[in-house]
Amino acid sequence: MEAPRAEEAAALSPDGWHIRPCFRKGSDPSSDSHLPDPFPAGIMGGVGSFLNPKRILQLGLGILILARPTCCAEDTYEAEANRLATLLNWQTGSVVADIGAGEGQMALLASSRVGAAGHVYATEVDPKKLAALGKLAREKMRVNLTVVQGAQDTTNLPRECCDSIFMRRVYHHFTDPAKIDPSLFQSLKPSGLLAVIDFPPRSGLPEVVGVPENRGGHGIPKNILINELTSAGFVVESVPKDWPSEDYCVIFRKPAP
User: Fold this and answer.
1) Looking at residue 203, what is its pLDDT?
2) pLDDT tens-digit readout, 24-64
3) CB neighbours (10 Å) of residue 129?
């Protein structure tokens, strides 16, 4: 029997712009090594082999892993959205932007938080993702959710429109931080907050083409991220501890004039 493909047992990309697979801590998300073999060779080769306790356990673990990822990913989004809601002071009537919104999970959660009196901008650079976000907003009847064509050098958001902005595993993909960082700054109201969730460089992930060489691999060191955004005028508000999935989060503030 052919073993299930790893992509059937995990969520989407190992980079996980907005999908986070259920990896064991310390596992390598770019390989299949984090998954037990649900159907080891010979498991159906005879009654004695089939009843081998070790192989029965492997089979059970495989079934659980295949059944769990979507639920696990949804739990992760909700947990992170709950923390962001507190850190960024999301309230009824708040205006929020999700930069690089991916498939829209976090944008939907934010739109529920801010209510009909608030608004959420969901930006994307990929045309297919942009179209999918628009369809999602219509299907979910989220009139407070606006989809915006993003870019590498600008948010394309109105000036000083947002009370807060957040991005999840997106910043390390920016090829021109010297331009996008001031654009983020301009998109925030005075005293507005910016949350950047990202991860240090990891081995085994595909190269991100066009980004500055100081990234050191796929990801970005936290100190470099902080240096770049403070150079654009932001000040560090806080660095929350124990962010899920071995990521880090930094909260910045746009100073009032």
Assistant:
1) 87
2) 334 343 333 333 333 344 433 444 444 455 554 454 444 44
3) 21
Residue 133: alpha-carbon gap to chain centroid = 15
Measured at the CA of 167, the angle between CA 164 and CA 173, to 5 degrees, comes to 140
Distance set, CA 60 to CA 54, 55, 63, 182 (Å) = 10, 9, 5, 51
Strands 188-198 and 162-168: parallel
Q: Residue 12 pLDDT > 90, yes or no?
A: no
> What does the chain come to in residues?
257
What does DSSP assign to residue 204?
Answer: T
**Interstrand relation of 188-198 and 248-253 (parallel, antiparallel or unpaired):** antiparallel
Are 7 and 31 in contact by the 8 Å Cβ rule? The answer is no
The number of angstroms, rounded, from the C-alpha of 209 to the middle of its chain's C-alpha atoms is 19
Question: What is the C-alpha separation between 171 and 66, in angstroms, rounded?
Answer: 30
* E strands present in 131-221: 145-149, 162-168, 188-198
Domains in the chain, please, with CATH? 6-70 (no CATH), 74-253 (3.40.50.150)
> Closest Cα to residue 195, out of 163, 155, 157?
163
Return the closest-CA partner of residue 110 out of 129, 135, 137: 137
Place of tokens 């009847």: 141
Q: How many whole angstroms separate alpha carbon 22 and alpha carbon 38?
A: 16
User: How many angstroms separate the CA atoms of 133 and 227, rounded?
Assistant: 32
Average pLDDT over residues 201-225: 95
Residue for token pair 């079934």? 63
DSSP code of residue 171: G
